[in-house]
Amino acid sequence: MTSARLMLGNGLAKDLAADTARRSEDFHQRAGRRPCLATVLVGDDPASVTYVRMKQNRCRQAGIESRHVALPDTTSTEELVAALTALSEDPEVDGILLQHPVPAQIDERAAFEAIAAGKDVDGVTMHSFAAMAFGLPGYDSCTPGGIMRLLDHHGVDPAGRHAVVIGRSPILGKPVAMLLLARDATVTVCHSKTQDLPAIVRTADIVVAAVGRPEFVRGDWLKPGAVVVDAGYNEGNVGDVAFDEAMSRADLVTPVPGGVGPMTISVLLDQTVRAAFEHAGLG
Ligand code: NAP
């Protein structure tokens, strides 16, 4: 039985982070300050606290200053919008990350839109989505941006190929579909109301699984030789694709962990340093 090649993200994410650290130091020398990422966390959900801490640690390693704004879980939309507006107007802040998800009483879209487009290094605003959709310069949603870099690094050109994206969330499925379309893939976006999903996936040259259900995509759904990107991350380090089955059918497969996952924070840091250069007019 043949076995697919692995599309690993660890090394690529490390190389990107090393390049970001070099550019961050160059910015420090030229601007007289370090690039600064503001993280905003509403409430104290343990997973979100861990994610924010990981991002702050990675900032430190890359020579990026991080500023943290912690708000109580009773925060209103107006209060969160005010905090994000203040960061948007602060000349010392280059990038802003609002940790997702926010408590249910908050209008998350209104909060995201309070982030200035030039500081949206997490790629969550409508402005950033439009830039991804039109293939114009802007900040990518970090996981979708990481997926595109993984594909490029492994020599997968989406042009003219049928890409099937399973999932349509604003942070993953929809933006990755736009990035693939901007690179001339023929894109089908599937979701929970899609009829006969396996038949659609069988026509895909590139499959992106962004569902949030362990081992949801089965090997016999895959066209032999397909490229399989598993963006899922479920309890117990399990992806959205049945890994062993995919390995015996596909050409390239991202493992979980070690595939898409490591790319996300590296893209965030890369985009933060890019924003710093742009704010300082150092291009
Ligand atoms: P989400 O917001 O829950 O979206 C899940 C999507 O899957 C929805 O669009 C939903 O369709 C669709 N879906 C659910 N059941 C389905 C079914 N039976 N058939 C077809 N589609 C179905 O999740 P998300 O935030 O996009 O995350 C998806 C996965 O990626 C999760 O495992 C998450 O942990 C992972 N993730 C990883 C990273 C990273 O690696 N750094 C970052 C973000 C997310 P409807 O729209 O119709 O409900």
From TrEMBL:
Its EC number is 1.5.1.5, 3.5.4.9. It catalyses: (6R)-5,10-methylene-5,6,7,8-tetrahydrofolate + NADP(+) = (6R)-5,10-methenyltetrahydrofolate + NADPH; (6R)-5,10-methenyltetrahydrofolate + H2O = (6R)-10-formyltetrahydrofolate + H(+). Pfam families: THF_DHG_CYH, THF_DHG_CYH_C. It comes from the Bacteria. One of its GO terms (biological process) is methionine biosynthetic process. Residues 9-122 form the Tetrahydrofolate dehydrogenase/cyclohydrolase catalytic domain. GO terms for cellular component: cytosol. NADP(+) binds at G167, R168, S169. Gene3D superfamilies: Leucine Dehydrogenase, chain A, domain 1 (3.40.50.10860), NAD(P)-binding Rossmann-like Domain (3.40.50.720). Residues 141-277 form the Tetrahydrofolate dehydrogenase/cyclohydrolase NAD(P)-binding domain. Keywords: Amino-acid biosynthesis, Histidine biosynthesis, Hydrolase, Methionine biosynthesis, Multifunctional enzyme, NADP, One-carbon metabolism, Oxidoreductase, Purine biosynthesis. InterPro entries: Aminoacid_DH-like_N_sf, NAD(P)-bd_dom_sf, THF_DH/CycHdrlase, THF_DH/CycHdrlase_cat_dom, THF_DH/CycHdrlase_CS, THF_DH/CycHdrlase_NAD-bd_dom. The keyword Oxidoreductase applies. Pathway: One-carbon metabolism; tetrahydrofolate interconversion. GO terms for molecular function: methenyltetrahydrofolate cyclohydrolase activity; methylenetetrahydrofolate dehydrogenase (NADP+) activity. Homodimer. Belongs to the tetrahydrofolate dehydrogenase/cyclohydrolase family. Catalyzes the oxidation of 5,10-methylenetetrahydrofolate to 5,10-methenyltetrahydrofolate and then the hydrolysis of 5,10-methenyltetrahydrofolate to 10-formyltetrahydrofolate. This is Bifunctional protein FolD. It comes from Solihabitans fulvus. The lineage of its organism: Bacteria, Bacillati, Actinomycetota, Actinomycetes, Pseudonocardiales. The gene is folD.
